[in-house]
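My current task is to audit a protein record that another person submitted. What it holds is a sequence and that sequence's fold in token form. Thanks in advance; the entry in question is below.
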Amino acid sequence: MNALALLVNSLPPVLFGFVFYYPFFMAWVWMAGGVSHAWSFESKRDVEVDPLTLLTSFPLVTVVVPCFNEEPHLREVIEQLMRTRYPNYEVIAVNDGSSDGTGPLLDAMTLEFDRLRVIHNASNQGKAVGLNTASQLALGEYILGIDGDALVDVNAIAWLLTRMLASENIGAVTGNPRIRTRTTLLGRMQVGEFSSIIGLIKRSQQLIGTLFTVSGVLAMFRRRAVIDVGFWSTDVLTEDIDMSWKLQLAGWRLRFEPRALCWILMPETLRGLWKQRLRWAEGGIQTMLRITPRIFNLRSWRLWLIYAEYMTSVVWAYAMALVLLISFIRPFLPQESSWHSALLPQWQGTLLAMTCILQILVSLWIDRRYDRDLLRYFAGTIWYPIAFWTITMATTVVALPKALMRGRGKRAVWTSPDRGVTDVPRQ
């Protein structure tokens, strides 16, 4: 026991400072970036503009919808796509070995909608295979990938194209997903997450010209860029993160378009949320491990900052886990431990909580122009940044060894998705 106490007391105070001040610092970075982006590039007036009037041409867009056991939501998704105002598009739905009625439903809808084509895979091959297959059969020069539960705004394709057509160097443009599962506390908390965490991060990263990822739930790709990097990797759990880094390492630029909206379902059980975030964490680490040998090439200097931030977050997760472990064993150690005062946040905890509240308020204020009801979820989401850091810590600690042990070439296939509660109202 004395040896354990000696080991604990030898831990440097900087460890505890890092655990508490890293999320504090990053929250202010994201808020500053989000406000700067909103001030410079976003205004309510822009939302009211008809994006079709901004386009000088209307190239064919292929919308790809990979599906696995999406029968309860699929008709609504396809019907919403058919309401799209952009005039020149086709839809390819890929039924990836679903065990429910997804396949027959898609076949029936091909008789209703001329724009719809269907591909059936005999077995579960994974989302990346579905995207690759559809991309090779696509007629469009631009490919819009969406999830099987996403309700795409009628102007989303047009808004994405306005960014894509701005430069031949842009390989992908990601949209602005909104959460529509808001009937439970967990669902409402994720409303705040997609604004205060994901939305602010994307805005901040766009200011330096790079993105950690284009959201696979709504992302448009230049078909030439996809071919250039060898399509989507079939052995990575998060094909969107992997594709984002492949494109950027090859010299393509990524963009975020907040006016391109879609409404998605998210897990509303702790088990479903844990499975989803663990997959995200493992897939992110997989990608970082793969690109590490290439990231230090001078041509990739634009990516160094977000690479360093991600790797720092992995270190933070293990540092936080160590601090929590110390807290757990503290009652069994001698009372006069030098780390006692450093472990307890005291006034720092209050400062971090106030920062989290401000972060939520700032993010909801920025995104309110796209989702008018956002501010009424403020009370239910103010503590989500703390919950976000907690679940990020836990999933990262578990995901790192899993990613290290996962061999290359192992197919990343679908698992049954948790789409939240049933009877979700449309937005």
Notes: The first helix runs from residue 2 to 9.
